[in-house]
């Protein structure tokens, strides 16, 4: 019995499902970060009054983000099946589930990073501008370093959300622990399997949250304001 809950015969299947969940969450987290972080930066720097003010672009990006975020994940997953099939070559399985997971989580991550960067002291940006720093220098050497603890916290929330979404994806053909819990725990009336799945998911979420909080505290080494502005100009 795995963890004293899971029948030994289901051990290999459980480990395979755990690996599928890790693959879905890991791949989606990487892709959402690569796309969502630039979107979050764009939402900040193109806002009215910012150094790359583009109101029209800001409204378009913000509206699209809000539309995707307001769509329940299970509906979004079904609605974009043709796109998923185009990208992944199939609409079922772990690889296919990465597509809707990524699309669903990008706007969330973008908005969370936007909120973190909006907390940066505006006077730091103004001081860097007055010293002749370029927009890229301000983003790289002032905005991102100053907002780093908040960005790490955003990544933690994103990972926790992805774990929950991956369980939902598993119920409609995505594989992973969600699929295992439904097929064996619900459809085959094996509550011990469902309980084992819940225990493992809770343990994963708690571990991710602990590690995220620790990392956010670790990177929160504020340097003096004058040094940060000078670094942006260098």
Helix proportion of residues, in percent? over 70%
Count every beta strand, where a strand is a DSSP E run of 2 or more residues: 0
CATH architecture: Orthogonal Bundle
Q: Name the overall outline.
A: elongated
The CATH top-level class label: Mainly Alpha
Query: What is the tally of helical segments?
Result: 10
Estimated radius of gyration:
21 Å
Helix/strand class: mainly alpha
> Proportion of β residues?
under 5%
Uncertain parts: none
What is the count of distinct domains?
1
CATH topology: MetI-like fold
- Separation of the first and last Cα atoms: 60 Å
How do the helices and strands follow one another from N- to C-terminus? Answer: HHHHHHHHHH
User: How would you sum up the major sheet?
Assistant: none
Which whole number gives the mean pLDDT? 85
List strands and helices in order, with pairings.
Layout: H1 11-45, H2 55-69, H3 73-79, H4 81-88, H5 94-118, H6 122-130, H7 135-174, H8 176-186, H9 191-218, H10 225-233
Helix pairs in contact: 1-5, 1-7, 1-8, 2-5, 4-5, 5-7, 6-7, 6-10, 7-8, 7-9, 7-10, 8-9
Summarize the structure.
It is a multi-pass membrane protein. The chain is mainly alpha-helical.
């Amino acid at each position: 019995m795995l963890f004293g809950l899971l029948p030994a015969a289901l051990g290999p299947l459980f480990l395979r499902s755990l690996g599928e969940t890790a693959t879905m969450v890991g791949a989606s987290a990487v892709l959402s970060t690569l796309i969502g972080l630039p979107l979050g930066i764009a939402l900040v720097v193109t806002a009215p009054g910012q150094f790359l003010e583009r109101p029209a672009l800001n409204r378009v990006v913000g509206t699209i983000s809000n539309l995707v975020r307001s769509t329940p994940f299970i509906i979004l997953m079904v609605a974009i099946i043709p796109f998923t099939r185009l990208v992944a070559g199939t609409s079922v399985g772990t690889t296919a589930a990465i597509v809707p997971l990524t699309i669903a989580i990008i706007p969330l991550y973008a908005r969370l990073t936007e909120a973190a960067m909006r907390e940066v002291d505006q006077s730091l940006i103004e001081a860097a501008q007055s010293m002749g720093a370029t927009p890229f220098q301000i983003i790289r050497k002032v905005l991102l370093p100053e907002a780093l603890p908040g960005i790490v916290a955003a990544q933690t929330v994103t990972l926790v959300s992805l774990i929950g979404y991956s369980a939902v994806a598993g119920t409609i053909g995505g594989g992973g622990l969600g699929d295992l819990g439904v097929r064996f725990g619900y459809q085959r009336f094996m509550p011990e399997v469902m309980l084992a799945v819940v225990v493992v998911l809770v343990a994963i979420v708690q571990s991710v949250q602990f590690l995220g909080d620790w990392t956010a505290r670790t990177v929160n080494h504020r340097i003096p304001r004058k040094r940060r502005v000078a670094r942006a100009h260098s």
